[in-house]
Design brief:
Oligomer: single chain
Distance between the termini: 26 Å
Number of domains: 1
Radius of gyration: 12 Å
Structural class: mainly alpha
Shape: globular
Strand content: under 5%
Helix content: 25-40%
Protein backbone atom coordinates (compact mmCIF):
# COMPACT_ATOMS: atom_id res chain seq x y z
CA UNK A 1 0.00 0.00 0.00
CA UNK A 2 2.96 2.35 -0.37
CA UNK A 3 3.12 5.51 -2.42
CA UNK A 4 4.60 6.16 -5.81
CA UNK A 5 7.20 8.80 -6.47
CA UNK A 6 5.54 11.99 -5.33
CA UNK A 7 6.51 14.95 -3.19
CA UNK A 8 5.52 14.27 0.39
CA UNK A 9 4.30 16.84 2.90
CA UNK A 10 7.03 18.57 4.88
CA UNK A 11 5.65 17.19 8.13
CA UNK A 12 2.51 16.13 9.94
CA UNK A 13 -0.69 18.07 9.21
CA UNK A 14 -1.94 20.44 11.90
CA UNK A 15 -4.94 18.31 12.88
CA UNK A 16 -5.37 17.88 16.65
CA UNK A 17 -7.56 15.03 17.86
CA UNK A 18 -9.65 15.23 21.07
CA UNK A 19 -9.48 12.65 23.87
CA UNK A 20 -12.93 11.29 22.99
CA UNK A 21 -15.76 11.69 20.48
CA UNK A 22 -13.46 11.74 17.48
CA UNK A 23 -15.27 12.93 14.36
CA UNK A 24 -14.55 11.62 10.89
CA UNK A 25 -15.37 14.95 9.23
CA UNK A 26 -13.60 17.20 11.76
CA UNK A 27 -10.55 15.08 12.56
CA UNK A 28 -9.97 11.88 10.60
CA UNK A 29 -10.83 13.11 7.10
CA UNK A 30 -8.68 16.28 7.30
CA UNK A 31 -5.82 14.18 8.69
CA UNK A 32 -6.09 11.56 5.93
CA UNK A 33 -6.45 14.15 3.18
CA UNK A 34 -3.33 16.04 4.23
CA UNK A 35 -1.15 13.05 5.12
CA UNK A 36 -2.26 9.95 3.18
CA UNK A 37 -4.42 11.16 0.29
CA UNK A 38 -1.72 13.08 -1.56
CA UNK A 39 -1.23 12.93 -5.33
CA UNK A 40 0.93 9.87 -5.98
CA UNK A 41 -0.30 8.18 -2.81
CA UNK A 42 -3.84 7.43 -1.65
CA UNK A 43 -5.76 10.15 -3.49
CA UNK A 44 -8.81 9.29 -5.58
CA UNK A 45 -6.66 9.82 -8.68
CA UNK A 46 -3.57 7.87 -7.61
CA UNK A 47 -4.94 5.00 -5.49
CA UNK A 48 -1.53 3.61 -4.55
CA UNK A 49 -1.94 -0.09 -3.79
CA UNK A 50 -5.55 0.22 -4.93
CA UNK A 51 -6.42 2.34 -1.89
CA UNK A 52 -7.92 5.84 -1.84
CA UNK A 53 -8.51 7.68 1.45
CA UNK A 54 -10.19 10.97 0.60
CA UNK A 55 -13.79 9.97 1.36
CA UNK A 56 -15.39 7.81 4.05
CA UNK A 57 -16.80 5.28 1.56
CA UNK A 58 -13.33 4.70 0.09
CA UNK A 59 -12.06 3.37 3.43
CA UNK A 60 -14.37 0.37 3.07
CA UNK A 61 -13.25 -0.58 -0.46
CA UNK A 62 -10.23 -2.40 0.97
CA UNK A 63 -11.36 -5.14 3.39
CA UNK A 64 -9.52 -4.90 6.70
CA UNK A 65 -8.26 -1.35 6.21
CA UNK A 66 -10.66 -0.30 8.98
CA UNK A 67 -12.24 -2.79 11.38
CA UNK A 68 -14.76 -0.83 13.49
CA UNK A 69 -14.13 -1.30 17.20
CA UNK A 70 -10.88 -3.18 16.51
CA UNK A 71 -7.96 -0.80 15.95
CA UNK A 72 -5.39 -3.58 16.41
CA UNK A 73 -7.01 -5.51 13.54
CA UNK A 74 -7.20 -2.43 11.26
CA UNK A 75 -4.49 -2.24 8.60
CA UNK A 76 -4.52 1.57 8.73
CA UNK A 77 -3.72 1.55 12.44
CA UNK A 78 -1.04 -1.11 12.00
CA UNK A 79 0.62 1.11 9.38
CA UNK A 80 0.35 4.25 11.51
CA UNK A 81 1.94 2.41 14.43
CA UNK A 82 4.67 0.99 12.16
CA UNK A 83 3.60 -2.62 12.71
CA UNK A 84 3.28 -3.02 8.94
CA UNK A 85 5.89 -1.63 6.53
CA UNK A 86 4.88 1.40 4.48
CA UNK A 87 6.54 4.18 2.52
CA UNK A 88 6.75 6.95 3.40
CA UNK A 89 7.31 6.27 7.07
CA UNK A 90 4.04 7.23 8.82
CA UNK A 91 5.94 8.63 11.80
CA UNK A 92 7.15 11.39 9.46
CA UNK A 93 3.58 12.27 8.43
CA UNK A 94 1.73 12.00 11.74
CA UNK A 95 2.05 12.95 15.39
CA UNK A 96 1.47 10.72 18.39
CA UNK A 97 -1.79 12.62 19.01
CA UNK A 98 -2.95 11.86 15.46
CA UNK A 99 -2.05 8.17 15.67
CA UNK A 100 -3.90 7.91 19.00
CA UNK A 101 -6.81 9.87 17.52
CA UNK A 102 -7.24 7.50 14.58
CA UNK A 103 -6.99 4.57 17.01
CA UNK A 104 -9.70 6.18 19.17
CA UNK A 105 -11.96 6.80 16.14
CA UNK A 106 -11.67 3.14 15.10
CA UNK A 107 -12.24 1.97 18.70
CA UNK A 108 -15.34 4.20 18.91
CA UNK A 109 -16.79 2.41 15.87
CA UNK A 110 -15.24 4.30 12.91
CA UNK A 111 -18.46 6.23 12.32
CA UNK A 112 -19.12 8.67 9.48
CA UNK A 113 -19.77 11.53 11.87
Amino acid sequence: MGCTQAPFPAGPPAVVFPDSNVSFRRHVQPFLRTSCAQIGCHSTQSRAGGVAMEEYAQLWERPGLIVPGEPDQSVLQQILERRLPHQPDPSQLSTENQRRGVRRWIAEGARNN
